[in-house]
Write a structure and sequence with these properties.
The chain has 451 residues and is α/β, with parallel strands linked by helices. It folds into two domains: 19-144 and 183-225 and 262-279, 3-Layer(aba) Sandwich (Rossmann fold); 282-450, 3-Layer(aba) Sandwich (glycerate kinase, domain 1), CATH 3.40.1480. The chain is built from 16 helices and 15 strands. It has helices at 3-17, 20-27, 63-74, 108-122, 138-141, 155-167, 172-180, 189-194, 227-236, 245-255, 281-294, 310-325, 355-365, 400-408, 413-418, 422-428; strands at 28-31, 34-38, 43-47, 53-59, 78-86, 96-101, 128-135, 198-204, 273-279, 298-301, 335-341, 377-383, 395-399, 432-433, 444-450. The strands form three sheets. A six-stranded parallel sheet has the order 6-5-4-7-8-9, with helices on both faces. Strands 10-11-15-12-13-14 form a six-stranded mixed sheet, with helices on both faces. β4, α3 (63-74) and β5 form a beta-alpha-beta unit. α1 (3-17) crosses α11 (281-294). It is globular, with a radius of gyration of 22 Å.
Length: 451
């Protein structure tokens, strides 16, 4: 097996482990009228005969496959459903309607999707069971600008804030803290709309650390963050004067207590809500590591919590690779280094790319003066959702073939890195990984083999 095929095979093993349909069918069991939820960490039981209706809602890139598994399990017991997904992340369903919308920046369909989910949840009564299918991407796919008798945000306001947060280097925890406080649904507010109906939230994590209040901005769980935290994040990244005036006014009013806070831990609205974490990046890393072992590699797993600037993390991988090639690691070759997580990119240029492609370009840049050391190394960084930034690629390969192809065309890693133009570089080097939508989403995987 050639090196790129080997790392792709290992990557695919990680994806297979977090297939949303598979996780729904393995975590839930239906026996007569009894629905059992058992993931090992979470155990719940529902007698479906006591419910008037079973409604399905949700949002995220994995929503379609999650709904597919739920339809296979419950069939006609599902009365109706509305699940919002990213464009192209669809499946053929019979009971649940999919609404395609924008990501990572919300669009008009994102606003319509939020309205449809809100209306269905508002129709739920005490005799209903609402099953929420929640996964990464839900924060943008549901665009629900805050509105009350005193304040009214627009979709353009939300889009502007989203763009600023995505380009300033803020973490997903910080981004979603802000999103929650500009929203009608996020930060547990959807649970308030569902009440008094019973609800079950099935969640696929795309967040480092698997914080339930951060995944899709915590639609159905208590929110520990506040408007004061939002204001601190805005100040930290120098965004105060760049936010739309309506957003500035809302945040200031929230800090002063003139806007109701998101529901906090202990709020009675959560008494009839159960939440189940079905899949994580750690599970994907574990499965990928097992596949690497099967292929004959010594395996070094760095875990599932890698964060930081993508180009800086790339230096760590490059350093490990150089030491392995030089024989300075206490591990035998061939070696496979595997990790997961979610990095960030602070935009300084006007190029095209995403955090995975930027990491690969940064990795190649570390070998620009030591090309011979790269001959025995193949590096892959890719998003499990099949999307890396606003591009068609999931990520890219960093190896000698990519560097040589680019050099033949006179391309400089440093120049493209300075412009944040990783996509153009890797495309010219024939080093992109293009999977198409995978309909799952558990952050990113980095896989490196040293021969």
């Amino acid at each position: 097996m050639n090196p790129r095929a080997a790392v792709k095979t290992i990557f695919d093993a990680g994806l297979e482990r977090v297939d949303p349909r598979r996780m729904v069918l393995s975590g839930l069991e239906l026996e007569n009228d009894i629905l059992r939820v058992d993931t090992g960490d979470f155990r719940y039981e529902y007698d479906l005969s006591v419910y008037r209706r079973i409604l399905v809602t949700g949002a995220g890139k994995a929503g379609a496959k999650m709904a597919l598994g739920l339809e296979e399990l419950l069939g006609p017991r599902i009365h109706s459903g509305k699940v919002a997904v990213k464009y192209g992340h669809t499946e053929e369903l019979s009971r649940v309607e999919l609404i395609e919308a924008g990501h990572p920046v919300p669009d008009e369909n994102s606003r319509k999707a939020a309205g449809a989910v809100m209306d269905l949840c508002a129709s739920a009564g005490e005799g209903d069971l609402v099953i929420n299918l929640i996964s990464g991407g839900g924060s943008a796919i549901l665009a629900d600008p805050y509105e009350d008798e005193h304040f009214r945000l627009s979709l353009d306001d939300v889009k502007a804030v989203t763009g600023l947060l995505l380009s300033c280097g803020a973490s997903i925890h910080e981004i979603n803290c802000v999103r929650k406080h500009l929203s009608l649904l996020k930060g547990g507010r959807l649970a308030r709309i569902i009440a008094p109906a019973q609800s079950l939230s099935l969640i696929l994590s795309d967040v480092v650390g698997d914080n339930l209040d951060v995944i899709a901005s915590g639609l159905t769980v208590p929110d520990p963050t506040t408007y004061a935290d939002t204001a601190d994040i805005v100040m930290r990244y120098g965004l105060s004067g760049r936010l739309p005036p309506s957003v500035q006014k809302l945040v200031a009013a929230g800090v002063e207590g003139r806007v109701p806070e998101t529901p906090k831990p202990g709020d009675p609205v959560f008494q009839r809500t159960n939440t189940v974490l079905l899949g994580t990046n750690a599970a994907a890393v574990k499965a990928a590591s097992a596949k690497a072992g099967e292929l004959g590699f010594s395996v070094l797993s760095l875990g599932s919590r890698i964060t930081g600037e993508a180009r800086e993390i790339a230096k760590v991988y490059a350093g490990v690779a150089k030491d392995a090639v030089a024989g300075h690691l206490p591990l035998s070759l061939p070696l496979c280094v595997i990790a997961g997580g979610e990095t960030t990119v602070t935009l300084n240029g006007d190029g095209m790319g995403g955090r995975n492609q930027e990491m690969v370009l940064g990795f190649l840049n570390e070998f620009s003066a030591e090309q011979e050391m790269l001959e025995r190394v193949t590096f892959l960084s890719a998003g499990t959702d099949g999307n890396d930034g606003p591009t068609e690629a999931a990520g890219g390969f960093g190896d000698a073939a990519a560097l040589k192809a680019a050099l033949k065309k006179g391309l400089s890693t440093a120049g493209f890195l300075q412009r944040n133009d990783s996509h153009s570089y890797l495309k010219a080097a024939c080093a992109l990984l293009i999977t198409g939508p995978t309909n799952t989403n558990v952050c990113d995987l980095q896989i490196m083999i040293i021969r």
